[in-house]
Amino acid sequence: MVLDFNEKMRILIISIIFALLQQGNGQNPKAHWTLLPNILVLQVNGALGQHPLTCLESAEEVMRRDDKGQEIIWKKNGVEEDQRGNMYLVELEESLGGGNYTCHNKDGSLLNHTVVLIQEDKTKTRKILVKSDQEDYLICSTQNYNGEFHCSWTWHPGRVGKVAFIRVQRGSSDDESTPCSVDTSGQQWTCSSPQGDISCSVDGSRMSCRDKQHCPYAEEAQHININVYFKTNHFLVENYSKYFYLSEIVKPDKVKISKVNGTTLEWSYPSSWNSPYSYFPLTFQIAQIRRGCKKCSNSCTHSKAVTTMLVNSTGSCQVNIKPKVEIVCIRAKDALCNSHWSEWSHIRKDKNERKHHKNKGQASQ
């Protein structure tokens, strides 16, 4: 009984000492938290430091062992360490110290494991993702108001990364009470709360999400908040966040164009857009271009239009094509909010039609 009491006291005293050390402003790590079961994040400031890991959680487990925990073997990334015993000290220096830590019996059987991820205390330094052309790390958009949206990112060319954790929720980004889980594949995430039930799937540098509780006919009362933790093969982790209303990121699909005759075009709403169109109206921009840019990937964005007009419509519309026009471009955006334009749709007159218009014009002179 004396041995049991002493062992318990030793573990308790060591735990108290490390808890006190973590409260000092100059200590490293500055903070630590559990990202997922068996995944620990240490926020470091670059100085020398240590952080304890425990193999067996309770003193009772330790005391049931014949060796009283003294023969527990530790490995880092599969390589055996010199340290022995129930407690292991992770050595921290600059951004080093992360890894897959495992503890074993003398016969090599696994007792426990902890993945340690390092988050540098430099909020302005980003190493895993790079900003897009829109000067943002996470680019999010939706095709309609059904509650589905997509976010993409660009990996730093010198880093190999993957998603470590996703939290998507309606409401304040400071509220971390929303429980989030991931399936065994590590690709399907679910975050459920009274404000929203959101599921996300990850595929490379893109994730697709759906708010199952969203109603397209109701005004959004709360933002969608996204927090994505990315990690590298060197056990570095960075957090990227974004918040928005769906109305701020909506971008309709391309407009449908159908040619009625040689001088008239008709267009209609994208099939993915919400109906009725009277409740979800679109504004259309029509550009008529006399001569396309042969070396450009998209004449709609790189050529000078003969005429440009805006049309508000709740159904299909027609436009008269001016003589000598070679290309007609049409795009759309939500008429009720300042959101994104769709990509351009375009149709090109064939040469015979343009020649017919030219000869007709010359004959009239």
How would you characterize the overall build of this protein?
By secondary structure, the protein is mainly beta. It has five helices and 26 strands. The strands form seven sheets. The chain has a six-stranded mixed sheet with strand order 1-2-8-7-4-5, with no helix packed on it. The longest helix is centred in the first third of the chain and has 21 residues, at 2-22.
What labels would you give this structure?
6-stranded mixed β-sheet, 365 residues, disordered C terminus, mainly beta, elongated, 13% helix
Topology:
Blueprint: H1 2-22, E1 31-36, E2 39-44, E3 46-54, H2 59-63, E4 73-76, E5 79-84, E6 87-94, E7 99-104, E8 110-120, E9 129-130, E10 139-141, E11 148-152, E12 154-155, E13 161-170, E14 180-182, E15 188-193, E16 196-203, E17 206-211, E18 224-232, E19 237-244, H3 246-249, E20 256-261, E21 264-268, E22 282-289, H4 299-302, E23 305-313, E24 317-320, E25 327-334, E26 345-348, H5 351-364
Parallel strand pairs: 2-8
Antiparallel strand pairs: 1-2, 3-6, 4-5, 4-7, 7-8, 9-12, 10-11, 11-17, 13-18, 14-15, 15-16, 16-17, 18-19, 20-21, 21-24, 22-23, 22-25, 25-26
